């Protein structure tokens, strides 16, 4: 008798509109910012890895629309499991004007429900899914983006936010 063991990895179950975003903190320069201190709406976007093609397209699209994000009053926070050193190199290389959180223990990714089974080129593994959440100043999730197109994401978020805030 042959016994075949199959490991079933959980699919991510992201937070949805109307739920409250989990509390978190991050460093911005010398200051530590707590999510409870963010008094404006923000986009928190999760991405797999610094300096890879899709992640670079997404980050640079946000950077290129940065003036529009500022006019809208939207903060942006990127999150991946890369280290702070990797984030700093990524920010410097592409002149990214927003903070990146090093979620090396995957606490934030798990809290938002974006970590789970992925498939790429026939390989199955666990990782951070490219997902984003538009969060109101009071911490309520206004919009969730479970399927992000990296090069179009910034424009989509800005359009959605303008409709939600009018």
Give a description of the structure.
- The chain has 166 residues and is α/β, with parallel strands linked by helices.
- The chain has one domain: 3-Layer(aba) Sandwich (Glutaredoxin), CATH 3.40.30.
- Helix content is 29%, strand content 27%.
- The protein is built from five helices and nine strands.
- It has helices at residues 53-64, 66-72, 84-94, 107-112, 153-164; strands at residues 25-28, 31-34, 42-46, 75-80, 100-102, 115-120, 123-128, 131-135, 141-145.
- The strands form three sheets. The protein has a five-stranded mixed sheet with strand order 5-4-3-8-9.
- The longest helix has 12 residues, at 53-64.
Mean pLDDT: 91
Order of helices and strands: EEEHHEHEHEEEEH
Task: Give the tally of β-strands.
Answer: 9
Q: Could you give the order of strands across the largest sheet? A: 5-4-3-8-9
CATH superfamily: Glutaredoxin
Which consecutive residue ranges, at least 5 long each, have pLDDT under 50? none
Per CATH, what is the topology? Glutaredoxin
Q: What is the share of helical residues? A: 25-40%
Looking at how many chains there are and whether they match, the oligomeric state comes to single chain
Strand fraction? 25-35%
For this structure, what is the CATH class? Answer: Alpha Beta
Structural class: alpha/beta
Instruction: Please state the CA-atom Rg, rounded to the nearest Å.
Output: 16 Å
Reported CATH architecture: 3-Layer(aba) Sandwich
So what's the overall shape? globular
Number of domains: 1
The main pleated sheet reads as:
5 strands, mixed
């Amino acid at each position: 008798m042959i016994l075949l063991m199959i490991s079933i990895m959980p699919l991510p179950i992201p937070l949805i509109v109307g739920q409250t975003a989990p509390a978190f903190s991050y460093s911005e320069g010398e200051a530590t910012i707590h999510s409870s201190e963010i008094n404006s709406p923000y986009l928190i976007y999760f991405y797999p890895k610094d300096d890879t093609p899709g992640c670079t397209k997404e980050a640079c699209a946000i950077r290129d629309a940065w003036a529009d994000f500022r006019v809208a009053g939207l903060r942006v926070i990127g999150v991946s499991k890369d280290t702070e050193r990797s984030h700093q190199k990524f920010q410097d290389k592409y002149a990214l004007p927003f903070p990146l959180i090093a979620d090396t223990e995957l606490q934030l990714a798990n809290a938002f429900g974006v970590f789970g089974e992925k498939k790429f080129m026939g390989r199955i593994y666990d990782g951070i899914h490219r997902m984003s959440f538009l969060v109101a100043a009071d911490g309520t999730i206004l919009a969730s983006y479970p399927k992000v197109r990296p090069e179009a994401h910034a424009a989509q978020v800005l359009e959605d936010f303008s409709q939600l805030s009018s």
